[in-house]
Amino acid sequence: MAFENDTIFALATAPGKAGVAVIRVSGPLAATVAATLAGSTPEPRIATLKILRDAAGTRLDQALLLYFAEKASFTGEAVLELHLHGSVAVVNRVLRVLSDMPGLRLAEAGEFTRRALENGVMDLAQVEGLADLIDAETEAQRRQALRVLSGDLGGMAERWRRDLIRAAALIEATIDFADEDVPVDVTPEVTSLLEGVSAQLTAEIAGVETAERIRNGFEVAIIGAPNVGKSTLLNALAGRDAAITSEYAGTTRDVIEVRMDLAGIPVTLLDTAGLRETDDVVEGIGIERAKARAERADLRIFLIENGDPPEFTPKPNDIIRTAKADVASNRANAISGKTGEGVEDLVSEVATKLSTLAGRSGVATRERHRIAMIRADEGLSAARAVLAHGADHYDIAAEELRTAIRALDSIVGRVDVENLLDEIFSSFCIGK
Q1: Can you state the angle between helices 343-358 and 187-216, rounded to 10 degrees?
Q2: Which one of 57, 268, 314, 427 has the lowest number of neighbouring Cβ atoms within 10 Å?
């Protein structure tokens, strides 16, 4: 992907008929494009209504133009935004005119954001936060993505890096003056800095799994014997017929998944095969899958009848309900997907439990972040172990600190991420 001297353009809003469509142009020719289409370049950051014309003077549209100067835009380059009427014909015609201009080309997927990274406007963690924000479907996902996009993770990594550079500088100074009498023992300060960063890394590492769950959705499995009403409850929670229901046991033979927004939290509901002894090979496979998937879920809802015990031991956070409240003799703690009795209370309890889990998430949201932080913490542990052997081993401790710093640098994209960039940006749309 070329960056220098190219001016790129793309539709930045969703394709199709709309009230307004925005075409974004970024690069050294952005001002030239404005002058060519509208006769002049607007003042930076001042919206200007202009008539757009092609090279032959034919009127294209009346549009609102926004111009951003270099180093004061999303990409860090000069940027022009054309706010057009959202007609498919208008958009296609303007895109055709731009493609005919010398020095302009259509942007590749994620290229605007990649330029922001290359020009130092964003770090890699912020780029990932932007991708998550675009994909966000629930309030929890939106909030988490905004934290990363606003630079919280990069700022945290920078503070850790600063402390480690300070520690490394103290060690290096001791090494440089090894043949002289150094009046101050730097070991206590260095140890304090390393322990402080290590404690924060440990806490943040522990929160990555929960943060990933917020990104991808918590899993809640509905478990019970055949024909206990699991699929009916799933349909009631989903608000649609997502699973087949019948009076015959064993209707559900595979795990059925339904994604939904539950009190702002992304949730994947799992309707599992009824748990029982069976000679049916296909049903048996479904039951084994149900058990395995239920064990991995973040939360399990056990449906039981007639006071029967759950099919396997619930975990401390799991929920147990008496099934078929509409026909049950004891309706205490009972639920019915058929009539809706108890469903609202169940939703509230699930939301409360998942909100508690979500509160344990950190700022780091991806496995890549977790691995980098683990590598950094391992470097700090090795450095502390070496420091205990005295000043003769300070050179080794300094090298371990450099390893830890490089690991932190990879979080924000300073090092070791070139092989990740194409994969990351391929998930972006063309206009982003």
Answers
A1: 150
A2: 57
Residue 313 has pLDDT above 90, yes or no: no
Domain span at residue 118 reads 7-122
The DSSP bridge pattern shows strands 7-11 and 20-26 to be: antiparallel
Task: Assign residue 351 the CATH number of its domain.
Answer: 3.40.50.300
The mean pLDDT value for 189-206 works out to 94
Give me the CATH number covering residue 176. 1.20.120.430
Considering Cα of 67, then 70, then 76, then 78, what sign does the dihedral take?
A: positive
Task: Check if the beta carbon of residue 205 is closer than 8 Å to that of residue 395.
Answer: no
Counted domains in the chain: 3
The predicted model scores a pTM of 0.78
Q: In this structure, are residues 30 and 17 in contact, taking their beta carbons and an 8 Å threshold?
A: no
Query: What are the tens digits of pLDDT across the range 322-347?
Result: 888 777 666 777 888 788 888 889 88
Same domain, 199 and 282: no
